[in-house]
Amino acid sequence: AYLKDADIRVKDCVALIESTVNQLFYQQGLEFADFVIHGENQNAFEKSLPDIVGSVVDESSVVLKNKQEVKAALLMTIRDVVYNGTPDQKTYLKRLSNTYMMLFLLQCDPKIATYFNTMASKLSVYVCTSILIPALSEFFLEPINRRHWNLLKGSHEAGVSLVVNETIIGELITHLRMIIKKYKLQYEHSEELYLSEDIQALYVDEILIRAYFYAKRRNQVSNFNEFIDNFVNPDLSNADTALIEWLREEFGIRYKSNKSLGVKIDKSELTLLSEKLKAHKSHPVKAVNDANLILTIYSVRETGNEIGSASIFGYKTWWLSKDTSTQKEVNKVFKNKYKVSCYIRPDFLYNYISLAPNKSEVDAVYKDLFPSLVGVNISFHLPSQIISRVHKRIAEHQIKHPARIKAILGDLAHKLQADPRCQTRRFVDHYLDEKLKSLNA
Q1: Which of 207, 218, 238, 353 could lock onto 158 through a cystine, CB 3.0 to 4.6 A?
Q2: What is the pLDDT of residue 30?
């Protein structure tokens, strides 16, 4: 009707309307669904509608000279449907809204996927040798059995920036040099003993040598040099360059030198912490390396002013490690100076990349199910109490302290990343309840 008044012909008017409704839910998500079902969040709808209509028409086959008139007609049509629609149109929109709520609960909300992708891209994680060495040992395992390998692969694919520096590369080379020497001294001339059956390999204390025996027993390698050659030259010539390239190609791990990041470590702090760590480490060099690395991470945080960003994503720079003793000594030695842990635990990162929705998969589900007749039929069976629960959660976030909410969620992110005991629904609910109560008070 609007197009007729403007004396304009469009090949498929209904397709423009469907595309606009689709984009409204895709971009506005819960806000638009909430507006359709409960009549709230009108401002969000009104602010976004002109932009969405504009993009739909611009991407359509409408001829250039008619686009402005078509945009105006489409804008008026959508408003008429939303505000003054027929009973059938209202029912259709409400069922689409229910479908969106269902997709949201299944983590198929594009905004959730975007959030997780954004969060991942904010993380810069230094990968400790306590993760890298077991990952190397999994080289010959079936993909499904590669725990550390898949953790690194999955983190990179999720958008996490994985990092090594000169300290980590140096420690990795030292470890390789040690196991090569140990193999020649203890195992080279008694291989048959450890190859007789898998259980014998359990008596080998170095995980990479143990992995070699498993691989040789399965005819995957013929000798130890061949095994080491999968990662670096057995004579360790140009080992630093080779390892940096291998880690980048295999896991997407990037090398960043301390100098390139402007890292400055207080030598007196390094000496003090190194001395304290010697009692907890296998070798004095290991104590120096771990002290150097953790102080590097705190320096990177300070240089990047991460503490002042008040980001919902929390700190950007973390240390992926199984080690716990280093942070404990940091807290004892420096008290409150480095009070926020820099550890990101492997289990947290694994759960994150396992549970976080993949953007491309979400888009595929969204396009297949919504909006469509299938989606509308499914949404008819969505329990009303579920809709009410989601609506209640939306309302809880409409609070007039956005800066404080950001700080609260940022602090929660720190706790979840550093302490597995916090990764329960009970803890999160209790934490948020207490914080929001004090905020409202």
Answers
A1: 353
A2: 73
